[in-house]
């Protein structure tokens, strides 16, 4: 999520109205219904983690033990188990 300067994107009258409620504070404006995005969708993080988890699962199936996977991916054994048993 990026921040935008209200002076650059909103009309002055609206800024004045908003300042009556929150003066100089940060304000989160949620997306419109139907425009929501899930976590990691924009940055690609979600897809990267799915790919990493597939690789971890494949390595486990071909004989790599949980401890080695945990060390290689800097994860706890519990996290490796969650990935494997998904």
Automatic annotation (TrEMBL):
InterPro entries per UniProt: c-mor_Regulatory_Protein (IPR052411), Homeodomain-like_sf (IPR009057), YraL-like (IPR049739)
Organism, scientific name: Bacillus carboniphilus
Matching NCBIfam families: CD3324_fam
Superkingdom as given in the UniProt entry: Bacteria
Protein name listed in UniProt: CD3324 family protein
